[in-house]
Each structure stands twice: as C-alpha cells, then as structure tokens.
Amino acid sequence: MKVSVILAARNRAKLLRRTLDSLARQSLDPDEWEIVLVDDMSTEDLRKAYAHLLGGINLTHVKVDPWRLAAAVGRGPLDNRYSVPAVALNVGIFLAQGRTLCLSRPEMIHAPTNLALSSRLLEEDPEYLFGTSYLGNPATNDYLDAHPEWPALEWRDFLGDVEAASLRTQRGTEPYWYTTYLPRGVAVSVGGVDLAYLPGVGGDDHDFRERVLRSGCRARRIPDLQGLLQHPARGTTRPRRKPTGWEEALARNHNLYWSRRRNRRFPLPANSGIDWTARECIVSLRRFSRSAGGGGSAARPSEPAGVSR
After folding, report:
1. Residue ranges per domain, the chain?
2. Distance CA 134, CA 33 (A)
3. Distance (Å, rounded) from C-alpha 219 to C-alpha 211?
4. How far is Cα 11 from Cα 39, in angstroms, rounded to an integer?
C-alpha cells in the first residue's frame, strides 16, 4: 500500500460523499491506496457516503468514542464536544497501511493526480508536502449541487467552473492538513497528535506540524498538489453551535501552543507514558477491500477495540 488517506469526520455525509467521489478518480492504481475514515460518533449514517463506491476502493470505516480515552488518561471530564481531532487522527495513523499519509479534511475535493504525485515525491525524499488549497464558499457548494456531473470534468475545467481563481487559498507557507502528505514513519516517530490538546479547541494541528519539522522532516510546497475545500456550513442539516466554555477551551490550547513556541519545548515524541494510538477509543471497525474488476466488495467483520495491525 503506497498511500493512506485519513479522513476524520463527524457528520457532513453529503460533503464527505463528494470528497470520496474525487478520491475514487485518482490516477494512482486503486490497489495501491486506501481511505481510513475515522467516524467521530456521527449521528448521520456515513455509510451512505461510500456505499456506491464499494468494490472499487479500499476503505476502512472505524467509529471512535474520544471519551474512552479522556477517562483513561485523565484529560477530563470532557463535558463539551470541542473541535480537536487528535483522537481521530491518531487512530487513523495507527490503522493506516500506506507508506505515505494524506492528512486531509473530509470536505476536501482532491485533484486526480494528488496521490500518485505525493507518493512518487515521498519515495525520493521523506518530506512534509503541502499543496494549493482553494477555500470554497457557499456559491461553490451551490455549483456542486447543481452539477452532479462534476467528477467527470478535467481538473482545470472544474477549477474554471467553480471560479477557483477568485477564491481564497491556503497561505503558501502553511502546511496545514488540507492537501498535506508525509511519511507514515515520521508521524509515528513524533508520537502522533499530542493528546494534551484534547480538552481544548485548536492548536493540535500546529503543534503536530512543529514536531514533524523539528524531527528533521522539512516542509515543501508543491503547487500541483491541489484541492478544493467545500464550504462546511453547507454540509449539515443544523447550524453548528459552539458549546459552553468554547472560548475558554480555545484560550487554553492557544496558551499551551504559544508557550511551547516561546520556550522551544515541543515534546519529541509526544504522549509520553500513554498509548498515543488511542486504540481503546475504537467502537467498531469494518474493512472493505477492492474486488478484482471492481465488481463487488469484501468486508471483514467488526473487530474489537484492541485491534492490532
């Protein structure tokens, strides 16, 4: 397996389906990559986002409950659901079988050459690659709703139709996980995403990047690695509300990250003394393998929380 695409998702099945449709059109041989969908206790049925693709892709659908870890490592009590994806990403890294990890958002539509290009580049040098991410708006989602044939378009034609040139883009110096690729071995060596950020909001992504770079894995921007981020607000049936204490949780993580930046004390590896993989949070797991010719699907029964690779 060359590439594992890790998607940490909670609901937004409509947007996730379009992301998966873009991945299904990748130029890399479908036997050489997989999707690890880490389902953070969604109330929507995410199976509907990929059912039409079974038989043509390799996909692991794992449901996780972050509160199992919060109790185990004394990070709680966590009375509010914040936005830190640390548990989901660590489970995804643990389960990934590919040499290259694609860390991405479940709303990101990928250019069809992304997986092949990133895999080739990382076989040459173990770097932290990031690309060009167009940040969609409500009009972008309206276009996608009105044009279900969009996956069949050439990438340049697609970007022209959504007027990508007029959209904001990810900053050229920001290797955030929109269209981001790195060797799995590097992610493991730095201890995954630091679970110290679990009780708060944000900061975990920047902290992970800092530790990867401090481990000697340099960041490099590859403009031809491209993606379009769908507008998240158009992907759910109800408005997302900030829970009570959200501002305090944000300030907590902000202070933790900037304290580390000032003192240049980012733990390498992180999560010392605990199991960084967060495997005890696994509630259920199903693997779907690509069938010969793409005519069917193969599913392995759900595995216990102690699943090993």
Report:
1. 3-300
2. 24
3. 12
4. 8
Burial 286-295 (b: 16+ CB within 10 A, else e): bbbbbeeeee
Pairing of strands 33-39, 3-9: parallel
CA distance 179 to 171: 12
Q: Whole-angstrom Cα distance, residue 236 to residue 301?
A: 29
Q: In whole angstroms, what is the distance from residue 105 CA to residue 19 CA?
A: 9
The rounded distance, in Å, linking the Cα atoms of 182 and 101 is: 5
Q: Looking at the predicted structure, is the pLDDT value of residue 216 above 70? A: yes
Asked whether 228 and 109 are in contact (CB, 8 A), the reply is yes
C-alpha pair distances (Å), 278 with each of 39, 63, 134, 227: 14, 12, 32, 29
Per DSSP, the three-state class of 169 is strand
Q: What topology does CATH give the domain 3-300?
A: Spore Coat Polysaccharide Biosynthesis Protein SpsA; Chain A (3.90.550)
Residues 175 and 110: their CA atoms lie apart, in Å, by 16
The helices-and-strands tally (H runs, E runs) of the chain is 10, 11
76 class by beta-carbon count within 10 Å (0-12 exposed, 13-18 middle, 19+ buried):
middle
Amino acid identity at 104 = S
pLDDT tens-digit readout, 144-189: 999 999 999 999 999 999 999 999 987 666 666 678 999 999 999 9
Both structure tokens of 21: 């449709």
CA angle 4, 155, 231 (to 5 degrees): 70
On whether the CB atoms of residues 82 and 243 are closer than 8 A, the answer is: yes
Between CA 277 and CA 226, with CA 190 as vertex, the angle to 5 degrees is: 90
Mean pLDDT of 216-228: 93
